[in-house]
Every structure is written in C-alpha cells, then in structure tokens.
Design goal:
Keywords: Lyase. The chain is of the alpha/beta class and 296 residues long. The chain contains twelve helices and seven strands.
Length: 296
C-alpha cells in the first residue's frame, strides 16, 4: 500500500455488525476489519452507506472509526464523512484526522439537488480539515451528479485526489482520464469492476469482499493487470452477487451473504427491512453457489 495514496487497492466499504437488539458490536467489527486485511484487502471504508452511517448516533459513528483504526492502523482506514451540512462533514473529517486516518471519502451535498457552486464550496470547506479527499459520485441516491467536467474542476482546485465512481457509466472513465489524468478513478460499484479496471482504475471501494474477500481480491488484481484469462471467468462466477451492490437492498444482501459464507452479517437498522423471500432466495442461491465453487 502506498502511504501517500491510501485509497489505492481494494478498500472494503465495511458492513457494520449489529446485535439482535440492533446495538453495534464493536468487537466483531474490529475482528472483521482485521480479517479483511488478512485476506488480502488493502483497507476499509467505514461509515459509508454500506456501514449504515445515516442511522448511527454521533457517538457510534466516531467509535466505528476509532475501532477500525485500532484494529488495522489509520493508514488503512478511509472513513466516509458525508453529512447534510458542510460544517458537519468537516467535523467528521477532523475526527478522522485526529483518529489517525490518512484520507476521507466525501459525497457531495445530499440534502437537496445542489448546483455546481454549492458542490465546490462543500468540498472546499471539508478540505480545511487537512486530509486528502476522495469524492464519492452516487447520482442515483444523492441526485447530485459529479460529471467528469465537475470532477476535473474539483481536482484542479486541489479539493479531491480521487473519486469513487458509482454512476455505472463506464464511458466516464475515459473522459475523466482526458480531463484530469492525475485524478485516481476508484471502482464504486461491484458490478462494473472489470470494465472500470480495464479502463485504468487505481482502486476499488468494494462491497462484496465483506463476504468473499480472497476471491474478490484475486478478481481485482487480475483485472487491473489485464489478465483476462483469470479475471473474466471469475467475474462471470461472481457477477450474480456483485450486481446486488447496485440494488436498493445491497446492505441486506451483503449481510446475508456474509452469514451464509460463515461470517457474521446480522440484522440491519430501520428504515431498512429484511429482504423479501424471493430476494433472499436469490442471494442465498448465488452465495451458496459461490461457496460451493470454493470462492469463500
């Protein structure tokens, strides 16, 4: 792992283990972070949407970051610092900095459909915390689209060093490379991993490695090296699971796959609800098939 660009490689957007009473199990979370690194992952991204940050108390959210840092070291932890207000996001970036993290991941303003000036002001404010920022483009959920031209502007101002790209539009990789060649593109959706890796991605903020880290890391490494003989068959095998990362029920799906693969996934907090029986059956069948194929 390169210290000055800690977002490179496979960084797992960690699922957060909750007990049956929906309290956070920090011991299980620490063990999970360590297990991911032992299985070849380069680091973790706590307090992302997969980590259910929106339904955590401020105390829980801070302790999640501190727990990850204690488990695997701050250089391997890139917390999500999204919040409705720029001042609050800046405070979360400062908390990450003080906990020993080397970078943070930041959504654009997501309380409303922000315009370009608001987006620039938001990233400018959070930059004041002094940590490198990886932008997170998720126009599906946030209704704010960080198009390549805007990302190039953010990078040109020195506000961002990378972007987790979740639009699903793989064509953007090439436009972004033309407009901002020094901006690191990170794969943001598991089900376009191969396409973005071939297009020059420098990292993967990943969901499914929570359940299948070793196979996922093997897939990523082969893909970025252009070893399609290894990557393509593995990608085909894993894709029935990877595509759940882009569905509304991704947290429930990944936690269920963790349970089936022998990890602890556990419940989710409301307003999320358990999968429908047909959804559960689909995730279960795909996970069991992957486990039977030796991918867990």
């Amino acid at each position: 792992m390169t210290d000055h660009r800690p977002w490179r490689g496979v960084l797992v957007a960690t699922a957060l283990p909750l007990r049956d009473d929906l309290s956070v199990d920090y011991d299980k979370f620490a063990e999970h972070c360590a297990w991911l690194v032992e299985n070849g992952c380069d680091g973790v991204v706590p307090n992302g949407s997969l980590g259910e940050y929106q339904v955590l108390t401020p105390e829980e959210r801070a302790k999640v970051v501190e727990t990850a840092v204690a488990a695997i070291g701050g250089e391997r932890v890139m917390p999500g610092v999204a919040a409705y207000g720029s001042a609050e996001s800046r405070r979360w970036a400062e908390q990450a900095r003080d906990a020993g993290c080397r970078a943070v991941m930041l959504l654009p303003p997501n309380a409303y459909r922000a315009d370009e000036r608001s987006v620039l002001a938001h990233y400018a404010e959070v930059t004041k915390a002094g940590l490198p920022i990886v932008a997170y483009n998720n126009p599906i959920d946030t209704k704010v689209d960080l198009v390549p031209e805007l990302l190039a502007k953010l990078h040109g101002e020195g506000y961002i060093q990378g972007v987790k790209e979740f639009s699903g539009d793989v064509r953007r990789a090439y436009r972004l490379a033309e407009l901002a060649p020094e901006l690191d593109l990170l794969i943001g959706a598991d089900d376009v991993l191969l396409e973005l890796a071939i297009a020059g991605a420098k990292g993967w903020v990943a969901g499914y490695p929570n359940a299948l880290p070793a196979a996922s890391v093997e897939l990523y490494r082969a893909a970025v090296e252009g070893d399609l003989d290894t990557a393509l068959p593995l990608y085909r095998q894993l894709h029935p699971l990877l595509r759940w990362d882009s569905k509304v029920e991704f947290v429930q799906a990944i936690k269920l796959s963790m349970d089936i693969a022998g990890r602890y996934g556990g419940p989710v907090r409301p307003p999320r609800v358990p999968l429908l029986p047909e959804q559960e059956a689909a995730v279960r069948a795909a996970t069991e098939k992957a486990v039977a194929a030796g991918l867990a």
